[in-house]
């Protein structure tokens, strides 16, 4: 598995991130399976582990499993979601919850620091200035090394990083968001923003809850998506969902690989900075998912898959693209290359 730089930092992160959301059974056989999964991920060259304070026993289990090898991994966790629903200050992105949540995560994970700390989602009631300054204080204290944000609008992330640049605070190095063939909303604003600002993208739910693995649309039953927060009801799937899933299966059969590998490879074909978060229930499923790291889809395969997943960028994206191609707007000469090459590798 190859490695890239996290955002505009020098931190090396693997192409595929490992989602530990499914680590919730803190007993015998389950612990052994979790340990085997981490071993398989590490042996494949993976080094990023994604968890959160809200993922049940995940942090506590990881703390046990990483004993003696914690520094070999880029360990990340998140805060925002309530730790105690009866306490109004036990949730949100304000300083008090950040400090309390971080200390709790460090204890559970049995570590003195986190490599990457995510804001779990946008809190409309906390000024972004407060969040960015509090995160920067934690970085300066050595308790976290890099920061990221999940599930937030592009304008907010852009504003946050602009404030950080002006005030010499730690800026977000990465953004986490849902992205797959059936959920391409990020292509409107979030992915272009990430590319422009040099942010890495951690894509959760890359298999759309297992839909893109083919388990609901015939073909060889493939890997489920253990990193998605909601379960999929087969009866709720639309004809478009099945059409896309069948196209994924068709491409997979032509290439002689699993459908999950094709779906994961597609997310990486759209933007070099995307890192799918892979999850699994056992080592066999994880191993199949990890096979996506070596799969490069042809331009024709990407076109077929994208065409099956009907998607409209909408305004202003489509309008601006039309303007750029129109000589009446920018003249006869259109730039053919960026001023600087992508430095993420």
From TrEMBL:
<dbReference type="Pfam" id="PF00248">
    <property type="entry name" value="Aldo_ket_red"/>
</dbReference>
<dbReference type="InterPro" id="IPR050523">
    <property type="entry name" value="AKR_Detox_Biosynth"/>
</dbReference>
<dbReference type="InterPro" id="IPR023210">
    <property type="entry name" value="NADP_OxRdtase_dom"/>
</dbReference>
<dbReference type="InterPro" id="IPR036812">
    <property type="entry name" value="NAD(P)_OxRdtase_dom_sf"/>
</dbReference>
<dbReference type="GO" id="GO:0016491">
    <property type="term" value="F:oxidoreductase activity"/>
</dbReference>
<keyword id="KW-0560">Oxidoreductase</keyword>
<dbReference type="GO" id="GO:0005829">
    <property type="term" value="C:cytosol"/>
</dbReference>
<protein>
    <submittedName>
        <fullName>Oxidoreductase, aryl-alcohol dehydrogenase like protein</fullName>
    </submittedName>
</protein>
<feature type="domain" description="NADP-dependent oxidoreductase">
    <location>
        <begin position="16"/>
        <end position="308"/>
    </location>
</feature>
<dbReference type="InterPro" id="IPR020471">
    <property type="entry name" value="AKR"/>
</dbReference>
């Amino acid at each position: 598995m190859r490695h890239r730089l996290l955002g505009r930092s020098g931190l090396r992160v693997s192409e595929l991130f490992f989602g530990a959301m499914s680590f919730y059974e803190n007993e015998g056989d389950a612990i052994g399976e979790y340990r085997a999964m981490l071993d398989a991920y590490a042996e494949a060259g993976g080094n990023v582990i994604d968890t959160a304070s809200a993922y049940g026993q995940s942090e506590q289990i990881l703390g046990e499993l990483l004993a003696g090898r914690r520094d070999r991994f880029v360990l990340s966790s998140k805060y925002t979601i309530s730790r105690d629903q009866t306490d109004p200050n036990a949730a949100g992105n304000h300083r008090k919850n950040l400090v309390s949540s971080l200390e709790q995560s460090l204890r559970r994970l049995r570590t003195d620091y986190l490599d990457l700390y995510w804001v779990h989602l946008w809190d409309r009631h906390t000024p972004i200035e407060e969040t960015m300054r509090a995160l920067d204080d934690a970085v300066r204290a050595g308790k976290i090394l890099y920061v990221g944000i999940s599930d937030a609008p592009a304008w907010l992330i852009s504003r946050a990083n602009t404030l950080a640049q002006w005030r010499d605070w730690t800026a977000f190095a990465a953004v986490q968001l849902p992205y797959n063939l059936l959920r391409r909303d990020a292509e409107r604003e979030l992915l272009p923003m990430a590319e422009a600002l040099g942010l890495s993208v951690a894509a959760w739910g890359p298999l759309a809850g297992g839909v893109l693995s083919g388990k609901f649309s015939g073909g060889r039953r493939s890997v489920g998506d253990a990193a998605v927060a909601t379960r999929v009801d087969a009866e709720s799937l639309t004809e478009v969902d099945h059409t896309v899933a069948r196209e994924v299966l068709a491409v997979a059969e032509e290439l002689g690989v699993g459908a999950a590998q094709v779906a994961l490879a597609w997310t990486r074909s759209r933007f070099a900075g995307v890192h799918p978060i892979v999850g699994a229930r056992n080592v066999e499923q994880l191993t199949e998912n990890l096979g996506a790291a070596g799969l490069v889809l042809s331009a024709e395969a990407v076109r077929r898959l994208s065409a099956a997943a009907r998607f409209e960028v909408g305004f202003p994206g489509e309008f601006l693209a039309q303007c750029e191609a129109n000589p009446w707007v920018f003249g006869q000469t259109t730039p053919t290359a960026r001023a600087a090459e992508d430095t993420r590798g």
